[in-house]
From TrEMBL:
One of its GO terms (cellular component) is plasma membrane. The lineage of its organism: Bacteria, Bacillati, Actinomycetota, Actinomycetes, Jiangellales. The chain crosses the membrane at residues 176-196, 203-226, 232-254, 280-302, 308-333, 363-383, 507-527, 539-561, 573-592, 627-647, 667-687. PANTHER family: MEMBRANE PROTEIN MJ1562-RELATED (PTHR33406), MEMBRANE PROTEIN YDFJ (PTHR33406:SF13). This is Putative drug exporter of the RND superfamily.
Length: 716
């Protein structure tokens, strides 16, 4: 009744509703720019030992701590004297340090280490620790390059590389940008909608999506004045918001059209669509929001910010779908439903036939689905958490060339991710000597310049044999921290590897708590929605199984490289960046649950009309199969557009979400869900009185004797 009353209110004030959303569009267009400018790139982990040391280093020395250094180099021309080149490079690096404020440079001149030279003697390099700017929208590579070129010895060429420069992608390929990605996703979505509706109605969900996205930016701008929010949010709002809003509007418009083709007048069709599909949209939005709000459990500010800001996406999508969509349908809906090529009076013949076969072979369908998913979940157990290897980052461009000039010259890759140790200055040499003997450490660097020695404290740098980028290679950081704990004068251990260890302890140590919270909240919400104890349990378990399978595909595709090289030209990453699995989980959990809600809501409706579980499954899939497949394809296209970003981490996240959506819409919702609902029979529809009273819903009892399935009308 609540949805019907709301529909009547919107229909009675539809012009005001449309005017309100027109104002939102204008305000959103004005707010998106300022909102993006106020987003930050802060990945700090307050309270963790590595993070606290990093913060102390940043405050005292102005650079480094939690970030990887840049490797900067001078390469002398052929025939130049190696000794003269090394001496000139040391002076040039000092000049670079003076030209760039608040940086630390470690090189042969201020460490006394002669290993800052390639084997051929032509290239001298240094570690440059940059000051971290949380509000920066780009990397400082050009600023660093300009300082190097100004100080370069006569005839020398310069190089700038480092993990961040490589992770940003090739400098020759800047990517499409958020706006271009949204436009590409919109064009793909319009093609799918044109197939679904075969009329001008295809444009209506896009209008609703635009209103939803811009409304989200208005809300985000307000939130940025209350706290800091990650720059990742901008991508998520634009592309996930596009897919979610279109999916919700697609569901509502499809049901309105079905009711219209059954002979209802326009406003009555809107009311029925809101009572049925609108209710499903409300529940779906709740499940997506729960998945994102669960990130608040994690003691990581940037993850919490993604959770809070990300939850705006389903909230704005639901608001736009349940107000702007019925307002437009109640006014111009019949006029834009032209030409009427496709009819919705009956269920899809193809999907009805498919559901009938699944119900008849439900044991085989369930067994085959579980076997496929179990195989993919098995691959998930090989997951390595960390950072992508440098070989899987930029494949061309100046950063790539500068790195390979160094590594080809015998420079160990551990320079990309040194371990920084903060010590009392009087103990620096002794501590460095002890830690240099830790297994996996190539050498220890003790800088003597003022930039690395202040107020009685010194930052020494330990160079690992290999880059510390994943859960196996960071073991050396653990060994360093353990040994450092026994030494006098050590104030803390930090660096990229230490931050990874902090993140894994803080986040994945609390993951089970987050999982339990999200599963419980989702279960309660779905019990109220479906008035069943078993259907929500099945939905939650299948969602977790779907997520595990999606992770397995990510591991195979990216970590082991079975696809990344062929599709993106990127070799195996060796690991998945530590924050990516969490964001995939938070978004995919709710997004994939959307389809479960769409399908089960219709199956429940059909069961109440027929009293037959099998008939409800066949009719429910016949009615929702094309809808769910189209909705999944729209989201997949949005993620495909996001995968066009040059940054490898965004590609990994986008493909992970895309894999999950496709798996969910095919194996899970089109095969396993109807098979299991058919197998469970009358147990699907049981909700005891005490539970119903507790949740303030009507109890549910299965039909005493289910009738034989009758033929289902299909579309011609």
């Amino acid at each position: 009744m609540m949805m019907r009353r709301w529909a009547e209110f919107v229909l009675a004030h539809r012009r005001w509703v449309v005017a309100f959303w027109a104002l939102v569009l204008v305000a959103g267009a004005m707010a998106s720019g300022p909102a993006n400018e106020r987003l930050t790139t802060d990945f700090s982990l307050p309270g963790e030992p590595g993070a606290e040391t990093a913060e102390r280093i940043e405050e005292r020395f102005g650079s480094g701590g939690s970030t990887a250094p840049y490797l900067v180099s001078f390469t002398a021309p052929d025939g130049a004297d190696a000794a003269d080149g090394a001496e000139g490079s040391a002076a040039a690096f000092d000049e670079v340090g003076r030209a760039l404020p608040d940086v630390r440079l470690l090189h042969a001149g201020n460490t006394g280490d002669d290993a800052f030279l390639t084997e051929d003697g032509r290239t001298s390099f240094a570690l440059l620790f940059w000051r971290w700017d949380e509000s920066a929208t780009g990397l400082p590579t050009e600023q660093i390059r300009a300082a190097l070129e100004a100080a370069a010895p006569a005839g020398a060429s310069v190089g700038v590389t480092g993990y961040d420069a490589l992770a940003a992608g090739s400098e020759e390929e800047e990517g499409w940008g958020v706006l271009a990605e949204v436009l590409v996703g919109s064009v793909g979505a319009l093609a799918v909608l044109a197939f679904v509706f075969a009329s001008l109605l295809a444009f209506l969900p896009l209008v609703v999506a635009a209103a939803s996205i811009l409304a989200t930016f208005v809300l985000l701008l307000g939130l940025t004045y209350l706290g800091e929010f990650s720059a990742l949010v901008s991508f998520l709002i634009a592309l996930i918001g596009l897919g979610v809003a279109i999916d919700y509007s697609l569901l509502l418009v499809t049901r309105w059209r079905e009711e219209r083709h059954h002979g209802r007048d326009n406003h009555d069709a809107v009311r029925v669509a809101m009572q049925t599909a609108g209710r499903a949209v409300l529940v779906s939005g709740g499940t997506v929001a729960i998945g994102l709000i669960s990130l608040l459990v994690l003691p990581v500010p940037f993850m919490r910010s993604v959770g809070i800001a990300g939850a705006l996406i389903p909230l704005a999508s639901v608001a736009a779908t349940l107000s702007l969509t019925p307002a437009l349908l109640g006014g111009i809906g019949p006029r834009v439903d032209w030409p009427r090529v496709r009819r919705e009076r009956t269920a899809s013949r193809a999907w009805t036939a498919w559901a009938t076969r699944v119900v008849r072979a439900r044991w085989a369908a369930a067994g085959a689905s579980v076997a496929i998913l179990a195989a993919l979940v098995g691959a998930f157990f090989g997951l390595r958490i960390g950072l992508a290897s440098t070989e899987s980052l930029a494949q061309n461009g100046p950063a790539y060339e500068a790195l390979h000039q160094l590594t080809d010259g015998g420079v160990v890759p551990g320079h990309l991710t040194p371990v920084e140790v903060l010590v009392s200055s009087g103990e620096a040499e002794a501590v460095a000597g002890e830690l240099a003997r830790v297994d996996g450490i190539d050498r220890a660097l003790v800088p003597t310049d003022e930039a690395s020695n202040r107020d009685g404290e010194t930052v020494i740098a330990l160079i690992p044999d290999a880059e510390t980028v994943d859960s196996t290679s960071v073991d050396v950081v653990d060994r360093v921290a353990e040994r450092a704990g026994d030494l006098d004068g050590v104030l803390g251990v930090s660096g990229v590897g230490a931050v990874q260890l902090d993140f894994m302890d803080a986040v994945y140590g609390n993951f089970l708590l987050m999982l339990a919270l999200i599963a419980l909240l989702t279960y309660v919400l779905l019990v109220r929605a479906f008035r069943s104890l078993l259907l929500p349990l099945k939905a939650v378990l299948l969602n977790l199984l779907s997520l595990g399978a999606a992770y397995g595909l990510v591991v195979l595709f990216w970590q082991y490289g079975y696809g990344s090289d062929a599709v993106f030209g990127i070799p195996e990453t060796g690991a998945i960046t530590f924050w990516v699995p969490l964001l995939i989980f938070a978004f995919l959990y709710g997004l994939s649950m959307d389809y479960e809600v769409f399908i089960l809501a219709r199956i429940r409706e059909e069961y109440e009309a027929t009293g037959s579980t099998d008939q409800a499954v066949v009719q429910g899939i016949g009615r929702t199969g094309r809808l769910v497949t189209s909705a999944a394809l729209i989201l997949f296209l949005a993620f495909a557009a996001l995968a066009a970003s040059p940054a490898t981490d965004l590609k990994v996240m986008a493909t992970g979400l895309g894999f999950g959506i496709l798996l969910d819409a095919t194996i899970i919702r089109s095969l396993l869900t109807p098979a299991l609902v058919s197998l469970f029979g009358t147990w699907n529809w049981y909700l005891p009185d005490w539970t119903a009273r507790l949740l303030r819903v009507a109890p549910s009892r299965p039909a005493a004797a289910e009738p034989e399935p009758r033929p289902v009308r299909t579309a011609t």
